[in-house]
């Protein structure tokens, strides 16, 4: 482990210019092998060490899923902004 609380497994930018980073948070994390990526179109995705995920589509829409599985969306127009259980 580093003094940051995680070890970087891999990271880089692919031939399309999209960035990724994979991190190991150790056995005490709900999701020890977390990662994130960001794309040239402005979208990005996080898989967090607490088990939650967050996705932004680059056009103002986003989806957050909590560690317990509740999903929250915003920015997708009418009917969004509520929560649902997976």
From TrEMBL:
Biased composition (Polar residues): 7-19, 40-73
Biased composition (Low complexity): 23-39
Disordered: annotated span: 1-86
Biased composition (Gly residues): 76-86
Name used for this protein in its record: Uncharacterized protein
């Amino acid at each position: 482990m580093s003094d940051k609380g995680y070890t970087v497994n891999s990271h880089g930018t692919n031939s399309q210019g999209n960035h990724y980073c994979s991190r190991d948070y150790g056995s005490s994390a709900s999701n020890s092998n977390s990662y994130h990526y960001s794309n040239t179109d402005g979208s990005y995705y996080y898989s967090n060490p607490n088990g939650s995920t967050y996705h932004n589509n680059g056009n103002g829409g986003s989806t957050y899923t909590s560690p317990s599985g509740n999903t929250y969306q915003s920015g997708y127009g009418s009917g969004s902004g509520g929560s649902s259980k997976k």
